[in-house]
Amino acid sequence: MDAATRDADEALVAIYTAHYRSLVRLAALLLHDVPAAEDVVQDAFVAMHGSWKRLRDTDKALAYLRQAVVNRARSRLRHLKVVDRKASSLLPADARAHMPSAETGAMAAIDRAHILVALRGLPQRQREVLVLRYYSDLSEAQIADAMGISAGAVKSHASRGMTALRQRLEQTP
Amino acid sequence: MSADDRDVRLEELLRTSLYDEAETIVPAGDGLSRIQSRVTTRRARASWWHPMAALGGVAVVAVAGFAAYALTRTPTHPSSITSTNTGDTPSPTPDASASTPPAPVVTAPTFPSSAFYPFTSEAAEQQWVAQDGPSKQPWIGDPELLAKTFVASFVQQAGVTDVYAKHVSGRIATITLGRTLHDGNRSVPVKVTTVTMAHFDKAWLVVGASDPDGQLRLTNPKSGQTVTSPAFVAGPGYGVDEAVRVDVRTVSGVARTGEAPTVGFGNGVPQWSTTVPFAASDPRGAIVVVEPSAADGGPGRITAVGVKFATVQAASYPRYFYGVKNGRVAKFSSKDGAAISYLTAPAPGGGASDPQLVGDHVFYLEGAGTCVNALRSVPVGGGSPTTVATPDPGYTITGYGVLARDTRVNSYFEASCDSAVTPQGRLVFDTIVDDTSSQRTSIDFPAFPPTVVGDPTWAADGQHVIAVVRTGTEAQVRQYDAYHSAKFEDTTAPCSSDASTGLPTATEVDGTGAVWFATQTGSGMQVFRCAGGQSSLAFPVTGTDTPADIAVADNGQAVLLTDTSGAVWRWTAGGVVTQLHPSVPQPQVTW
After folding, report:
1. pTM score, whole prediction
2. Taking CB atoms and an 8 Å limit, are B19 and A148 in contact across chains?
3. Measured between alpha carbons, how far apart are the two ends of chain B, in Å?
4. ipTM of the complex
């Protein structure tokens, strides 16, 4: 085994230890399917390992992984058309059926359920931007890099996504 | 509620909703082994394909490939997927298919470069084998026993012995350990750490440990990174009122010098950080972070990152420093603080204080009765003192700075002896107009606060004076323009303030132009170096003391820090903080 391969093996373990869980969660928020999310992230890690000679840097590798996860999640949704079918594995179709009553004072939980349902109904790019922004805490530039779009497009998707979210929540009884 | 308020609320709601939802997602524990299995398969395929392709024999390839596949293929994990539908893939493009038959590949064992326990080198492992170690210390050959021993002996956390998950795949093993937490009448099983190990020869070697919940993580240093003392350790914040203890450890024991810092965070703080001075005799070790459980004080989360230690030669420091003994300016050994000789004679009516070495003279303040003092200087090699500046009548000089490249230029802060007098204080600039004339300007401080604390110090440009300005319970490092500032508010900030967690009390500029300042925090004192407007922590000293003075070597490679009780610490770049022990307290020193 040469030094580069050994380096890639060790980087794989280190990056897996530090980021695997958060990447799976990111993928799951995009796919609404935990096993599929794990598959997507594992694909990305295998690809990253193969590309380590070019990456050779943890930060670059993480950016690569994010990009691969977003792309693969998008591809999986597009080709398998599993959005609605799989969504039920994470969230109930009617979130309100599982909500605590308003009398219990659990308004925050109700809001959270509503907003996740509303988020799922957004166009794919808007949903990706909002998840990367508000879950992964990425900057506009990082989101643009992860999605392969311009920073201006990120702004546009974010603005439209937030507006749509607000409208959907306002329509919620 | 305004539109902006609603936006902020929606953003916050979205953020917390996503976080809460993400928290419910727990990946299966076999992710690493599945990835490694696929990597191994891919590698085997590549090593088989390339030599065959070179031969150019299609028939040979087909036969050999089939034979190899028959010999080595492993069942695909039932839930794993092949990457046939990878979609848009970032460059460099990952391999798409895992369907090509694999072939056997034999690789020579290589010592993992990130291993730090129980061996840090191939030679150490070989020595263990040669001394019949595998039969005498079988725990090194068993990943589960090694993980438990690692937590108990290396991390030194007892009771973390329950095995929650165990995955061994090829050269890599991960063991998740936990314990039973006792909270009142309840007993709750908790996962504490997942230890990752790599196999080499006859031994398993620890290469890292992580929090099974993924909360306690390190963003700095990264695994395998080379660190120098003091190690800067940071991680993302989480939770509410959290606290972690940070340590530097090696197989030889604790490498940290001084107390292990405990860092508090949570409540929305995005990042926690600290520095840990250390002196390591081993080439490798680990940054170990432990979060105690709020329920019983036992270990709640453990994270360890393997690092390499830089073999940095500690910078040298000036051989002598100057302080005051028996009211006289005196010379001391920087090695241990022992007094060597006096530079000034006993002065009736008051003693010397606040010495500052500038060029080949030591400047100092000398009292001459009640409410009378003067700024004086004496040659380092001995000689007659001369008076440099005197305050206005009714005022005394409380702090001063002399421009190194032209000692005719100085600045001092004078305070009224009568608190009813206005102004209560005055920042004075004695500057030169040309070779034959000078000018004196000043800024009034009508009433305290605000006031100048400690010594003002000249910036490298010879135009600005940097001082710690105290305003009530707060203080800031501010910069005055000696030629243009007219009021005490006419200041700028020479350094970013976000790094200065604490109350600044002393400042000094070194020969490179870097601004240094000492702050008091809740857990001790910190000294920051500020260059290009950006501050970074140089070193901390734990305790509850208030910094009184800092003296920075001209090259910025060594610092003396004193506290108000007269204790003295010496720091050198790449080295450690050492407390000196002069025979008398030294609240103000210089070198």
Report:
1. 0.44
2. no
3. 59
4. 0.83
